[in-house]
Fold this sequence. Notes:
Blueprint: H1 7-18, H2 22-29, H3 44-51, H4 53-77, H5 82-97, H6 110-121, H7 124-140, H8 143-161, H9 165-182
Helix pairs in contact: 1-4, 1-5, 2-3, 2-4, 3-4, 4-5, 4-6, 5-6, 5-9, 6-7, 7-8, 8-9
Amino acid sequence: MLPFPHPWLYLFISYLLGSLPFSVWIARLAGADPRQVGDQNPGATNALKAGGKWVGLLALLLDISKAAAPIGMAYQIYQWRGAEMALIALAPLLGHAYSPFLRFRGGKALATALGVWIGLTLWQVPLVALAGITLWYLLFKNPGWAVLFTLAGMAIFLLLFRPDPFLLYGVLAPQSALLIFKHRHHFLQSPSKRKA
């Protein structure tokens, strides 16, 4: 049996893991910097643009894993629920979005959010999220609107097929607020226009 950590210590660990800027570190090994391309966001998409497909893919997998591992352990193994688990589920996103390694700046936390849902529901919500973000981005060509409609689709799925107030209000609601805030500049554009 794994040792049972204190939830508040685990909260800090989840934040710290989420704050690891893999996209910057991996791109740097390839002689590139994702903060110098695209929208200058230190995330996997710009790691792809700066360092190529393998750099981008590795950054994406690590950004997903740094949330999926701690959240999966807390939710599936330790079976935490309630306010402490809601905070633990938000912590990797906050770490990615406001990383102490990057002077409390960071990425938009989409890959990390996907990792949280893998930890919570394995394939169910991540499949809905991936299908949604792909569909809405192809339709709107605007990341902000794609994220907004994807979050709405995730909420509908949870209401219909996983009617768990903790997942809907404890996890998705605060996660949505953060993701919408991080994409706020895209909402100044029409849904059919893309900002690089």
